[in-house]
Sequence to fold (327 residues):
Amino acid sequence: MVAFNAIMAPKRDLSLPLDTVTFRCSPCRHTFDAEPLRVDDAAELEHHPFAYAAACPLCGRETGQAPFHKALVKAWANATGPKTSAGKAAVTKNIEGHPTPEEALRTRFNAMKHGMAAETAQYFPSRPGKYPACSSCDVDHTYCAQQPACVKQTQLFMVHHAAFEQRNPKHLVPIYSSIQASITAIIQQILQTIIADGVKLEHPAWAVTREGDIVIGEYNDFETGKKRTIMEVKAHPLLKPLQEFLSRNNLSLSDMGMTPKAIEQEEQQMGKLQRGEDTQATLSLQDFAAKQAESLAALKQLAERANARKQRDPVLIDYQQQNGDGQ
Fold:
């Protein structure tokens, strides 16, 4: 884009207006570069005291400078760097030997762009507004249309590529956390739908005759003398996919330990202490209490022996004699 080139150009005096500015039309979400039709003074912007306006080429509305372009101008105005020969030489020395192999492994995806030969472009070409996620996508549709592949799908592809190549699943934790949360929300909606509709659904029985007419199944109730409709009762259609999903993801009652048998086994194991995985033996509470009593009895004997040893300590005896505490 022309505006980016202007920002990356050699530093110039920003007290003068820009010749080309990037504009963003909020109503139609169109981003474009153009020469400003109107330049107003904006004294509150100390780094570049100008506000720009132009007409959108799509809808004709007057629009202002894109927020990201304002931020780039400010960043460019505040950018500093070495100016003297000594400073430039110091910076050159600092970057010698970089990037290291570890740094290259970490930054090799920084400058990667999705081109026509990219794998993600083969499966998800750029089609703004054609994918289900486009309705809530925050990427500018005009910018996305200029790319060979969907921007969001490219980001997802690169994150998975890096995670599997580095064998580091931490890169995928935020993605799969969102997926799991969405799945849980869908399960809740299924349950709410089943509860609202009922676990069984009834509808009139019907058939098609040879002539192609639809006939509703009815019969005469001899007790009341009224004609009644034959109703077919079926289970709610959402019960089967819900059951399959819970069983495949180990979310059944038995997997979560909520069945009567699992609860009974858990209660039987309560009150038992594990000795260790190598012995595979357990101690009941009674055995543990008995061993604790033996330990306390042994502790009493140790205390008595320690007290007797203290009374025979020559240093303690000498100290007591000096202070008049001797027996």
About this structure: The mean pLDDT is 77. The chain is about 45% helix and 15% strand. The longest strand covers residues 50-55.
